[in-house]
């Protein structure tokens, strides 16, 4: 099972719409519980790219570690 990227830092960035803790959108957060393994893998892959976004360079203090 692929673990949730949630880091218990739940705040939505106003410019990107992504959580500053896990970098997921509200739709991805809501869908996580019923998402297939394939869908979860796709979300994790997107998080790596999102972590490089300028809006999140200072917001995310530690890199996300994929459970893939």
Automatic annotation (TrEMBL):
InterPro entries: DUF1289 (IPR010710). It comes from the Bacteria. PANTHER family: DUF1289 DOMAIN-CONTAINING PROTEIN. This is DUF1289 domain-containing protein.
């Amino acid at each position: 099972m692929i673990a949730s990227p949630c880091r218990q830092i739940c705040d939505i960035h106003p410019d990107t719409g992504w959580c500053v803790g896990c970098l997921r959108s509200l739709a991805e957060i809501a869908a996580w519980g019923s998402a297939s393994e394939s869908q979860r893998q796709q979300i994790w892959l997107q998080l790596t790219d999102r972590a490089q976004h300028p809006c999140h360079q200072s917001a995310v203090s530690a890199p996300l570690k994929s459970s893939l």
